[in-house]
Amino acid sequence: MVGAPVYLNVYDMYWLNDYAFGLGVGVFHSGIEVHNIEYSYGGHPFPLSGIFENAPKDPDELGENFKFRESIHLGDTDFSPEDVQKIIRQMGSEYQGDKYHLISKNCNHFSGHLSKTLTGKELPPWINRLATISGSMPFIERWIPAEWLTPIASTTKIK
């Protein structure tokens, strides 16, 4: 059986990069593309999975502040589309929307976890450099507006 290619799709979050490039780092959104579906993780105020699917390499589905940067072939996987869906459902309990944090649990952490599961490979280190640097120099996080770090609480309630 020939494996399915697995890609890391990287997007510039250029509204944040205006600030981050001044610190010598970039802020990127990433998703993992496999079987013609891109899987990403994002924040929302609910204790439900924050993993979502979108068309590969389509920044319009992500919003006006995202620009497609590049696609990196990470390797191949022997997991079927059904197996990948099961993996995503299992990961949903760990990657809940209300647990999203720009520094400590972001889309790049998710992409790294999924890449490791599907291919056994890590992401290139530059993808999540801001989070890595902030982990060793916590004062950097204090420079980032709080509303960028975690999802803003919504007044909407699930009944």
TrEMBL record:
> Which superkingdom is the protein from?
Eukaryota
What is any one GO biological process for this UniProt entry?
proteolysis
Keywords annotated in UniProt: Hydrolase, Protease
Instruction: Name a Pfam family for this protein.
Output: Peptidase_C97
The cross-references to Gene3D superfamilies, in alphabetical order and at most eight, read: PPPDE domains
Asked if Protease is a keyword of the record, the answer is yes
GO MF annotation terms: deubiquitinase activity
Q: Cite the SMART domains for this sequence.
A: DUF862
Task: Cite the InterPro entries for this sequence.
Answer: PPPDE_dom (IPR008580), PPPDE_sf (IPR042266)
Every copy of the PPPDE domain together lies at 4-148
Family assignment from sequence similarity: Belongs to the DeSI family.
Protein name according to UniProt: DUF862 domain-containing protein
Q: What is the lineage of its organism?
A: Eukaryota, Metazoa, Ecdysozoa, Nematoda, Chromadorea
